Amino acid sequence: MSVPTDVHPTDSTRVGVTAARGFVASGVEAGLKEHGGRDVALVVNRGTRPASAGVFTSNRVAAAPVILTRAHLETATLTAVVLNSGGANACTGIEGAADASATAGRVAEILDVDSNHVGVCSTGMIGERLPMDILLAGVDGAAATLDAGPEAALAAADAIRTTDTVCKTIVVDGPVAPGEPVWCVGGMAKGAGMLAPGLATMLCVLTTDALISDEDAYNALTEAVRTTFNRTDSDGCMSTNDSVILLSSGDSGVCPGLTEFTETVREACGSLARQLIADAEGSSHDVDITIVGASDEVAGETVARAIARSNLVKTAIFGNDPNWGRIISEVGTVPESVAPYDPHEVDVSINGVMVCRSGGLGDSRDLVDMTAREVHILVDLHAGSHEVTLWTTDLTHDYVHENSAYSS
Amino acid sequence: MSVPTDVHPTDSTRVGVTAARGFVASGVEAGLKEHGGRDVALVVNRGTRPASAGVFTSNRVAAAPVILTRAHLETATLTAVVLNSGGANACTGIEGAADASATAGRVAEILDVDSNHVGVCSTGMIGERLPMDILLAGVDGAAATLDAGPEAALAAADAIRTTDTVCKTIVVDGPVAPGEPVWCVGGMAKGAGMLAPGLATMLCVLTTDALISDEDAYNALTEAVRTTFNRTDSDGCMSTNDSVILLSSGDSGVCPGLTEFTETVREACGSLARQLIADAEGSSHDVDITIVGASDEVAGETVARAIARSNLVKTAIFGNDPNWGRIISEVGTVPESVAPYDPHEVDVSINGVMVCRSGGLGDSRDLVDMTAREVHILVDLHAGSHEVTLWTTDLTHDYVHENSAYSS
Q1: Would you call B403 an interface residue with chain A, using a CB distance cutoff of 8 Å?
Q2: Are B78 and B55 spatial neighbours (Cβ–Cβ below 8 Å)?
Q3: Domains of chain A by start residue, with CATH
Q4: What is the reported pTM?
Q5: pLDDT digit string (tens) for A144-184?
Q6: CA distance B32 to B159
């Protein structure tokens, strides 16, 4: 669950969304957040052979910027993304739609492109309109401070934080053939609450200097998201604003194979997803749930998600209690039509101790040490050869506090 | 959400499972519970024309007593149910199956019936075998103290408590035709944790002196459970031991119509379900979620359950925060194939204030008073004429504490 440092081959000059050639970014404080701090970010693709792709929440109550950006992607290649924290612009009616449109329009005007080349992402409270004068002034400020350096990438990552306690960025170098130039995928994300299925949390912008088509960008992105952000489930809640956008500049001149490109994007998304979980609201344990012996991937994922969403499992983990009864009880809630297995063959291990063997008592729960932040749950269904891992967190007093003490 | 007093036409001499003619019960302390208290209950049907029915957890990891009682019901009419707290006898392998069987056998021997006339229910920790010497001595004690009075019914209701803070009993009189004798449905239940779908929590024994067949008993019970216990969802977790058993003695001589009988059973189950929610672990609010304008019942129930299971909704309610964005966001997670509706037509009211109108901003959230224990959430999908109500609780520090501080 820790962020694998080997996928951070980042020197201090290559950070997040500006690591790939052809990108500039910025992050400024416009005044949208009650408690201050940066709140408007801009990422611009100056590459000559741009491509783009996006994956969005499957929530039917989609926020205005999601609807707008999805529509833009259908007609054009995005070359800029403007993002704000301090307000989700969700459930804000036709006024909210006009606000999102005006935000894209302002960026388009400054960059001298058609507005359907601009993506918009918002995060924050649902059901409140954005103060447009403040936001548009912030857009102007962001456009005036665009830069290709690492500070700009960090400022952008900072500006999209809500309850995130740290910035999340990543750079993953793609595999390089002898004599070829290097290329990479960089990115930033925000999460913290509403880490969920369908799509986790979240806003994420990925940039790359690989030379790819819109179609390959989309295929790589959807596949990468499927096994990373979509396998991240902190509290089972799916946001109205989830957006993952990939921009490529082509400026490396390298045209990687789709498989290589997909794996590089997957590594970047995987690292960002684990950074989100590690910083999820109020968590005291990072939990990976691995299902082996599943009949297929859907079976494994469904079982893993049932466990990840159980408040009884999550509170037990918070209490450092290897309560496997609560785990196998969740396994049992998955219908046989989805996950065929024999309940009398299921093994459950917690942190390497098989506390439940063949659906019954296994080794002593006293052998399980749960004091470390990382908790590993392994369930063997003995029903096939498929393996799925899903990441979640525990349910703590701090989670209840953060989500009850104020509106968000 | 409060227990409607008008369905408690109970004088102090008619309580719970002994209110109907023909039943005796008892509750004793055998020593199964770590902290003491009654832990073995027995309910015996002495009627001359007995019938029975049972509804059980749909969890595939069903406890030994569930498997046994389900099998008994397929071959015989139950005339006795023995229940214990202090251990679930779930995930205990063939030894656990033998333990459940031995428990039924001891009751059968004492009552001089075949053991397939005896139902067994257990509740408590999963994955530990019951101390059979203690349990069987408790069965002997329970059999020796069987009584038809109200104290016996209360002792039985007390003996099945785990983290329940109060006993849950009910008596509902059936409709009486002129000149006919009165008849009633009485019952007891335990809940507190694992209040969930598929079946709530829970152990419940209902008794009636109506004269009905096994088949009518089953039909009435499944229909009553569907709209009561199955619409009760405190924490989304489905137990391995959930059991609802109905015994009829026929001793009133009254043979009610199936509709009348079903409604009377439904009233009894509804009251017990609300008593369970009101005593759910750590809750500070009782919440009813009503979906109107649904295209059909499944649509309404699915939307209601999505809201009821959202930790973000539940923590907001704990914080007295009328956070409708979290509610409509959950509405949006339900696929259109299950619940057709237009997100731009959805209204959300909290405690009578329509805070979200037509999918957007409604009346001020400042108008909503959430200080009372009862919270009413009303969602109008404007997609049909069906209405569904589901009951849940908030997510509190006490819930986290009760489920993390010790193993259960």
Answers
A1: yes
A2: no
A3: 5-278 (3.60.70.12), 286-404 (3.10.20.340)
A4: 0.80
A5: 999 999 999 999 999 999 888 899 999 999 999 888 999 99
A6: 11
